[in-house]
Amino acid sequence: MFTADVLIQLTIDGVSRGAMYGLMGAGLALIFGILGIINMAHGELFMLGAYAMYFATMVLGVPAPIALLISTALMFCVGVAMERGLIAPLRARLGSRWLVDGYVLTIGIMVVLQNLALILFGPREFGIAAFWPGRQEFGDVVISNERVLILAGALFTTGALALFLKKTNLGRAIRATAEHPAAAQVLGINIERIYAITFGIGAALAGAIGSLLLSTYPAYPTVGGEVLLKAFVVVIIGGLGSVWGAMLAGPLLGLIEAYATAFAPGGWQNTITSLLVLAVLVLRPQGLFSRQVTRP
Amino acid sequence: MLLKVRELKVGYASGADVLRGVDLSVGASSVTGLIGANGAGKSTLLKTICGFLRRRSGAIAFDAADIGKLQPSQLATHGIAYLMEGHSVFPGLTVEENLVLGTWAFRKERARAKQAVERAFELSSVLRAKRKVKAGLLSGGQQRILEMERLTLNDPRLVILDEPSLGLSPKLVHEVFDRIAQMKADGAGVLVVDQSARHVCAASDHLYVLRLGEICIEGPAASFSDRIDELVRNFI
């Protein structure tokens, strides 16, 4: 039977993995909230981050924490370049009719990046066993160091993102642009810059998570697909466009997955997730955690 | 003149001009009123001055410099404040966050930005009481007060107001027009469009009536005060 220590392990497992889904979803929600497009290439940003982490640590021998920073910074630049080079010109040319085109564009970026990775690195999986081998024992509860690392990384990144959005001028400007772009402009906020920075932040989050999860998800060309699906689930549960909702829905999804794996026969894990998504879409389409602010 | 609009033509669809050659001026330390029927082109004129629409032809000069190619995000650094049609608070941000964003144009001058926000709280007890409340939870009137305070945080030289009294209670309408008088006393030029022709006429130094994309009447507001009803009947 399942004892307390197993439950604790499952919980830690679920929360740490789920917090990562939450951050992927938060990036997706941030980009959707600001630019209005669903970034279908979000999984590929995760994939690029994973490759960057692998090559930095295993090929160049850079220590993991520094490699993580490099990979995150690199993906921020990739995100900004993608927005400036591909998405912004499309928006400028099409005006208000660009949203569908923007969506299709990100599907194109997804396909191109997948195939580029296939050509450059081949179909092989580049993974590692663990950045921090070994384990911690707390009485009967045994937790691998890697889990501790992932949980710490997820909590740190979630906290940093929340603080950034809440407490900094730039973070406030990003939220303001999401709510009322014209009013933000009138106050002097250059929303073109906000678009680029937001896409960069979303890409940096995806890259950082791809790097941190290298031991769980090795780098290969289509690794992004699975992760993107999780991110979508998180975004639907949390409420489309709600960054906070996604950050809360992530751990919830992680817990459901962890418990389902342990308590239900194989295959039920994805079924339960899908049922939850259906239930949310039918019963509470605004998402479980979105506190809609309505005008009186 | 602070703002000078000359022969301005603007249209949405090709061929059909909404503004068909508008001339209008706004001086410093004065209030200029603009009234007209729905669809006359009042909002279009304001949007064009503020860079949300592009002119077909004509000139828009602010402080004798051409601002026809101005981006909306450059308004604040030029010292132009614009109250757009409808609601413009950020509903999910707190009252304080809304005000802090009003100092965006000079956010690097931290002390000044902080002081401007604190002064707004000192001036308005309503906002002070709702400091940490999300702006979307305020009543329509409270939101308007927040918008008006946010508008003047960086001491604009030109304030452009699109329907500031729309949907407000009579008491709040007075408050809004008192605030406009205060802006004028502080040296700003104010251009105000409003449904309430009587209030606009009373608050203005100079009045324009826009009809079908053209200025049909203009003059010192005082000269209209006794025949404002006739004006409203004939043109609005």
From TrEMBL, chain A:
Tell me, in one coarse class, where this protein mainly resides: membrane
Its cellular-component GO annotations read: plasma membrane
Annotated membrane topology is: Multi-pass membrane protein
- Cellular localisation: Cell membrane
Ordered alphabetically, the record's keywords are:
Amino-acid transport, Cell membrane, Membrane, Transmembrane, Transmembrane helix, Transport
Q: Name one GO molecular function term.
A: transmembrane transporter activity
Membrane spanning segments where? 20-41, 53-82, 102-121, 148-165, 194-215, 227-247, 267-283
Q: Which GO BP terms apply?
A: amino acid transport
Top-level division of the source organism's lineage: Bacteria
Extract the Pfam families matched here.
BPD_transp_2
Q: Which family does it belong to?
A: Belongs to the binding-protein-dependent transport system permease family. LivHM subfamily.
Protein name (database record): Branched-chain amino acid transport system permease protein
UniProtKB/TrEMBL annotation, chain B:
The chain positions of domain ABC transporter read 3-236
Q: Does the keyword Nucleotide-binding apply?
A: yes
Q: Name one GO biological process term.
A: L-amino acid transport
Known Pfam families for this protein? ABC_tran
The reply on keyword Transferase is no
Question: Where on the tree of life does the source sit, at the highest rank?
Answer: Bacteria
InterPro entries in alphabetical order: AAA+_ATPase, ABC_transporter-like_ATP-bd, BCAA_Transport_ATP-bd_LivF, P-loop_NTPase
**Could you cite one Gene Ontology molecular function of this protein?**
ATP hydrolysis activity
Keywords, comma-separated and alphabetical:
Amino-acid transport, ATP-binding, Nucleotide-binding, Transport
Homology family: Belongs to the ABC transporter superfamily.
What is the protein's name according to its record?
Branched-chain amino acid transport system ATP-binding protein
**Lineage of the species this protein comes from:** Bacteria, Pseudomonadati, Pseudomonadota, Alphaproteobacteria, Hyphomicrobiales
